[in-house]
Batch of 3 targets.
Target 1
Amino acid sequence: MLKVNICGVEFNNPVIAASGTFGFGREFEPYVDLNKIGGISTKGLTYYKKDGNEGRRIHETASGIMNSIGLQNPSVSEFIKNDLDFMKQFDAKIIANIGGSQVEDYLKSIELIEETDIEIIELNISCPNVKEGGMAFGIKCDIAFDIVKKVREKTNKVLMVKLSPNAENIKEMAISCVEAGADSLSLVNTFNALAIDIYKRKPIFKNVTAGLSGPAIKPIALRMVKEVHDVVDVPIVGMGGIMDWQDAIEFIMAGSTAVQVGTANFIQPNIMEDIIDGIERFMIKENIKDLSEITGII
Amino acid sequence: MEKNNYVSGKIIKNEQIDNDIFLIELEGSFKGEPGQFYMVRGWDEYPLLPRPLSIFDLENNKISFLYQVVGKGTGILSNLKKGAKVEILGPLGNGFPIVNNQKVALVSGGIGLAPMKYLARKLDCKVDLFAGFRTSSYLMDEMSNFVDNIVITTNDGNEGKKGFVTDYIEDKYDVIYACGPNPMMNSLKKLNLKAKSYYSLEAHMACGIGACLGCAINTTKGIQRVCHEGPVFDGSEVIFDVES
């Protein structure tokens, strides 16, 4: 009943762990049944190992969390060597989230992923915490078009492009990515945001700005999912402040085939199991046989 | 297999020890080693994140945490009354390695006293405590049951010796266990004492279980997570960023 299909890849349910909030699943294994959740989007991977950002990395705000992790990761090749087999033990579908600073790095990463049996690549052109590249690719349509097209030529896997809410125009951005060959879109990444330490009279984060996630962004993320659903005809994976099953249903009704849960994992490690159960109860109560009946219904 | 999760603990006591310092005791059978911590939340939805608190003491049917009110979360926690429930997840991280038959110094700065009672109780050694405070001490009577000597320092000289604990520690110990603000730990490290040292670090963290990478610090072994590889690190390996 809960199964969803994204471009031929069948997920047991529509609830996926969002990149950067779930590592490679290892840390969550004592807390969550990794056979129960629909999928895991890996920690953002880059061709070269990244140590991430210096200074404060986490700051809590009203209804939100700001982070400036800076894509700390062991590199695509180390992930394949050390973590992929662990992830493959479970029923959760693996999505390889690929980030980078330069187009060439993305392409080299894709070549490595291409040799694995991972079925979906989530192209992260929207990380706000990487100085060069990252979000820069996800703000202007022509730059996004260019990188998606180049990646498309390199891979036969399902290509999901993760959009930034900081895009100049989210609808045009979605159209550009689909025209460039994206099979699916996921949105939204974190919002570029600012917090100030009033005693030090300085920004909290060394990079000045950082990415805002959590319930604070949900209504805006939801609006963007609807806008994108109105203009493109590819499966959308919606995210942004999903804290419970009701939030997940809202994202599905706004046009999401599946959803990703991020910040909520930090607050309750097994929250995704609750969300899955809640969606199922809702479907039974509302006599919904398949989630496609309510996807984009508003 | 049964998965871990947050569990409820009923408050037996939540008392103010000093200006902004509180000691909360929860009823229940909990696990943990000295230096390990729990993620604690005493509220429903907001603040979003739980707060990491190290184990102050742990007995058969009781766990306690010493904490300082610094923001909204700890403020809410301090207002909870006996009988109320808090949600806790743990024990998390790696605690202090326990040594035997060594000359040991415990060094704390302010709320860095938090992991020291349980540690002192578990150590079967001659233990001196160097406890630094801003202006006055707290819980020293309780600590005196488990340590041999106590050196109290205050920044303003109001009580004990004036200055910082690092001004008074002698180079005669085999092992030093320390917890306090980064500048204190950095000063301690710079003393280059011959003792083997273990530092319990504090960091802003979101998940507490090693996934968010929010609490990363620099060490000679590369980037490490305070919540997962720590919070206790070999003192020789920590590279302090004293700004943060």
Target 2
Amino acid sequence: MIAFLFRRLVVSALLVVFVSLISFSLVFASGNPAARLAGEGSAADAARLSQQHGFGDPILVQYGRWLTGVVRGDFGDSLYFSRPVAELLGQHFPATAKLGLAAMLFALLLAIPLGVLAGLKKGSLADRATMMLSACAQAMPPFCLAFLLIIVFSVRNQWLPASGFDTWKHYVMPVVALGLFAMPAMLRLMKSEMETVLTTDYIRTARAMGLGGASVVLKYALRNALRPLVSLAAAQMGTLLAGSVVIETVFAINGAGLLAWTSILRGDFPTMQALILIFALIYIALTLLADLINGWLDPRVRAAT
Amino acid sequence: MQLTRTVKLVSAALLALGAHAAQANKADNSLNIAFDAAPATLDAYKESDRPGLALARMVFSGLLQKNQDTGEFGPAIATGYKFVDDTTIELPIRRDVKFHDGSVLTIDDVLYTLNLVSSEGFKARFQNQVAWIAKAEKVGDDTVRITMKTPYPLALEMLSENLPIYPRKYYEANQSDMGAKPIGTGPYRLAESQPGSRYVYERFDDYFGNKPAVKKLVVRVLPDANTQYAELLSGGLDWIWRVPPDVAKRMEKTPSVTVKSSSIMRISYISLNPRADDGKSPLAKQEVRQAINYAIDREAIRKALVGGASKVINAACNPAQFGCAADVQTYKFDPARAKQLLAEAGYPNGITLDLVISAPPRSILDAAAAQMAQAGIKLNLVEQQYGTAMTNWREGKIALLSSNWGSYGIADAALSTSNFFRGGPDDQARNPEVIKYLEAADTSVDRELRAKNYAAAQKIVAEQAYWVPLWNHSLNAVQAKDLNFSVDGDEFPRFYKATWN
């Protein structure tokens, strides 16, 4: 287990360095940010800002400077907000974490029971209806669904607020829009796992020994079918982080997604770089955690990797 | 492109469903406003974008106040002004001005602010706002004397709102606080804020000027336009701005809201680089540049795609600006004349050029490209982010650039014509004669002389066709029916002027 953990950690660390290098280079590939930063300012304003922020230095020098800071936990100052990026991240991540976790919970609450149902009643009306729901949710881009919800629940009926993130009412539409985005893959996996598990010898044996249907499903089949869902849920959590950029923009939720959108629009390089790094770190950490849980649950996984 | 279409469809759906009456907050006298971007800071000297600058102007006051209708400069923190000579101005300071923390403004605050923000180490975001000040000193008990480095015709413009006065004690203690918790002498004080998402302003009862009619401003940051429309139509907002013309047109039919279209200082243009491709580009020839001017039907595009209060412009400035000449060469849409000019220049089979778009909407340039094709000018449209496009233009890498310019909202050609043609980094024409005229105009306080020199420069620019002047912008705001308010020509919404019908 220790060797397995070590291998995983080394791979993750290399990935983090790789991602930081790529993100840094890509961000700088789009040109000198001083002109954008100068906003409505003249060329003289842009030239002064370029000098002030060292944008003229070679990219490797700038990367080195940035990396040294990051190691110390210093992501530099936001070019747009003129405040430490670390402070901005601290301010914006809680909303994204709340939104992501709530959306994941919502997605799992739909995916697990519906997946089990579809797996158990293969070919039935319930199975077809579930698969239809999954296909629709998959086909609908989150921002479209978000606007549809706003039209129905805010403009037409004024039941829910169209923006903000204060009361439970504010949570409903963003969580549904984001949760439905993550749900289909998990639902389908749940269904196929359920179908597979139900045909295994040990389930047949359990049934042959006279165990009741519900008991077999909940105690044995579901437990085994849930295992692959751990990995997928971790991956989907990363998808939710990406989706939060759109959802937070539409619902004006002041989270890390909206911060990412703002920094892209404003050419706020230090904030963008920090966000890409942190998003990547979270994604890698979640995948690592899922691998470890799977490794712990199933010795075959440890041996295979 | 696909996304834009979807967004348009969604806006159409939102508008079609917007039958509910907006519940404007006339009852509790609060005005609910949306901006599409979070202010970077509320410190007026460190901000470069309109939303932040507009909000800062609610909190701060300058020494003078410009009447936006007449263009005259009246009293504010100073009771008036007097030019001692071309480079010296004296302003007596009021004694009854209070900051939002209750402290009384003194002449020391004025001297401190002016000397600090004009110092090089301070790094004010817009240098033309402050760099003209050599020093500010006290004359007598209550009078400030400002000495300029050279005669600066925009001094009064800058002293009106562009140079807010800060409380010395507060600013000295911690400058960064001013960005989040500003203390000024303006008509509103910041009562609470969730930085980046919500700002609440309350009327400042000790304000020295006319008290605003609206008691409370609630400003929310809603980055998505469709969310703004939804909030406006469901009564959560009373005022939104920068609404695209097609959406504004549809909104006009919604009974619960009013569309206000204001003519503003911002102008659109296409810049032509005669030095492109090391002077080997067809743009090096005056005939080709003139042909491009003849090949665009500006009025047709303006009518179809810009609308509102916009008007076609002919010179490299906004006609509302001092020094913007009316009698320059104009180019009426004439594809046949354009073709003839191209042939005279040695391009009988037409030309192909790249045009960089740094400020959408692209639809305008699509229309222009289709018109120009009739005259044998084929355009490849290239969209670039504003920062990238401007950097490339300044490095001479772009042949044609389409963008817009707001002149900081200041009604003087020094901030338009001179920005583009006085030999600075934005000037790819670098015509020595034009530069000479503009230098003379920008460094004199003699209005007649200035007007004459700007006119001479603009005449050459038009004859040489270094630019395709397009139109001035129309700013569309959509607001609750019972709100009486409009954005001023300098593109600043002054919410203290708002009233309920």
Target 3
Amino acid sequence: MKFKLTFWKFVFAVIMALGTYALFVRFTQGLGASTNLTDQFPWGIWIGFDVLCGVMLAAGGFTLTAAVHIFNIKRLHAIVRPTVLTAFLGYALVSIALVIDLGRPYRIWHPLVMRNPHSVMFEVAYCVMLYLAVLSLEFSPVVLERFKLEKPLKYIKAALIPLVILGVILSTLHQSSLGTLYLIMPTKLHPFWYSPLLPVYFFISAIAVGLAMTIFESSISSKVFGRALELPILRELGRVMMVVLGVYGILRFEDLFHRGVLKLTLVPSYEMYLFWLEIALALVLPLVLLCIRKVRMSAGGLYLSAVLVVLGFITNRLNVSITGMETSAGQHYIPKWTEYSITAAIVAVGFALFGLAVKYLPIFEDTEHAPEEANAKAIAAAATAMSHAGK
Amino acid sequence: MSKALLYDATLCVGCKACEGACAEQNKLPYDETIAAEQVQSDHKFTVVLNKNEKYMRRLCMHCQDPACASVCPVGALHKTAAGPVVYEEDRCMGCRYCMAACPFGVPKYEWSKVLPKVQKCVMCPDRVAAGRPTACTEACPTGATKFGEREELIQEARDRIRQNPSNYVPHVFGIEEVGGTSVLILSGVAFEEFGLKPNELPKDPLPLYTYRVLSRIPDFVPLGGMVLGGVWWITHRREEVAAAEAAEKKEDRGGSR
């Protein structure tokens, strides 16, 4: 096999080299040397992006397994595997990011034996740990199939429904708990984002992002791996996403109104601009797009809406964890290059692992071990999709 | 019956004897440069702020129901029955949620160390347990910091305001703020001048804010399981019924033919 250096491989190598060096700095010189964190600003992008956004972006796993296995929406079955894989990789990477952020990483196991059930962080730690186990079991059939291990496969399949239910419960708990984390900071978080409804917002938006990520992934992987696009499925997801966004938007603005901060959203300030950026990306633009039938029915329109929703809620998580804290901290926080590098490396590793998994494991049902047959199937599926699109 | 500190800013002369005594007690470095620093940090657990010859001493408030202790996933911080909020270094994994949660910005981190710990005033727990006053109280030459029973100190603080109303802002900081603290403060100038915001701080203990949500989890788990299991049963049963009906129809047609 010959190694060919492509543009993306080069980018990947650069990111990994920088990330490795940043990691070296972090573990030999400490958090002070490798981050711009301070006593006033103890949580930066490793928490705000790597953990909050990482967990949110992995939300497709629980929404889709629930839709297919609990609500019995069979049409979506074809995209369960790539979504569960994304979720599994997402949570694994979140755990790695946490290890890097902890001041004493080798004590990450402490919550297992030193329990404080009053702590939201304790609950999140347990949920993430258990959910990672659930996800690896949910994903295991893929590996077991690949190596033709029939017996364990049978056991896993028998336990699938309880596993899915457990996964949905655990996800509901910790997706919302990431919002609950901030409930103890009523005097610190800016009123645009501090709300008693934070756990509810985090949960609803996780569902919206879970759907958006599924659309996003299907679109990308159909391009990259030359697969047929499951357009009818994506349309369905798009419609549900529209409803979820609508509910979120109404709740959010009603709450702003009831807490008397709605008028503040029109007074120019650093927070105001970032608030409206978030609302425009996460709510206004995708809702307008999805309300237009032609856009909602097209692959490009769905893809664009999904990207906007993802970017919008990334902005939301960063607003909650960073923007909203700056005034009370009395300082702006701009991450150091080391913080960016490690975050970028973690994301890059995620992409690489996803690519490898797709290459060597039966992730997409139609590419299983028989390339010719798969191609034929893909063409057939594409034809069906096109005929659907033509209608 | 818990111990507390009463700091009366009107009696403070800004000599910083408390700072020095604190550094000695906790084996921290202390010199002129550190004395000039106007912030609490990992090497300065108490600070005497100076604004135009008006003083305000800041240290950990030792809340009655501390946010830091409530958020710590491993229970490294806890409030002792005697009053101090103490820190067990051996448990801490460095998540820094205590720092994010503290409404007074008290816990500080050893950012320059590879294996850092959280640093803050722990109210000399060994001394307090032995019935002795804290190091800072003992060092104070004017009695601006007083050590005693919390209830008695609250009474005394109120008496001081009543006897000398023109000297004080009519508010004892720490009786009600975030559910009460074990450090009580009297001041001659507005608390806001030194960043203390009695009007913005809730009267409820902050741990209530998260615990209200957290305490529902034990109900949610079995309930969620039941609902999801129920939905699964209904959706799959529907399918079975539909399949059975279709099979029946087929049979009927077959029979009539």
